[in-house]
Amino acid sequence: MITTAAFDKTIQQFEAKPKDAEKLLDKIEAEHELLLDILVGSNAESLTDDEADYLIFLFAALFETFQREVGIKEYTQKQIEEAEEKAWEIINEKKDFNSSVARLYEISEEKDAVEFIELSLGPDDENEYNITDTGRVIMLAVMAGELMVFTD
Questions:
Q1: Over the stretch 43-71, which tens digit does the pLDDT of each residue have?
Q2: How large is the average pLDDT for residues 85-112?
Q3: Taking Cα atoms as reference points, which of 148, 117, 113 lies closest to residue 39?
Q4: Which of left, alpha, beta for 95 (phi over 0: left; psi -120 to 50: alpha)?
Q5: 75: helix, strand or coil
Q6: 118 with 139: CB under 8 angstroms?
Q7: Contact, 32 vs 60, CB < 8 A?
Q8: Where are the domains of the chain?
């Protein structure tokens, strides 16, 4: 199980050394292009520029934390697409952010990863990013899909 402290460490690393996040994104693009293209690429056009930037940051943070703590393997297109479909099924079934997140808590063994997603995307007056309701749903689907790929 990955702890909240592990996610905090990644965020602190990215904030202290933004170049680390950029290098990681280059690595993801080079070595895990399908993961990025399917989960982020197919959904990013519906996001504002700020939402897309924030999503990429969160995507990289989740990736880095899993990579450091348990390792990242190669995933097939089918595995990634199935995870994305499952994420969208949850969102479409539950119809709102809080119910969708509650369902993720139910099905995921990585509770702290779900908490990271919830705290990063949930409505919060202190969040420096202005996330629209539509953006929040799309970002949740991407992050949930990424989590499902890593924990399948």
A1: 778 899 999 999 999 999 999 999 999 99
A2: 94
A3: 148
A4: left
A5: coil
A6: no
A7: no
A8: 4-151
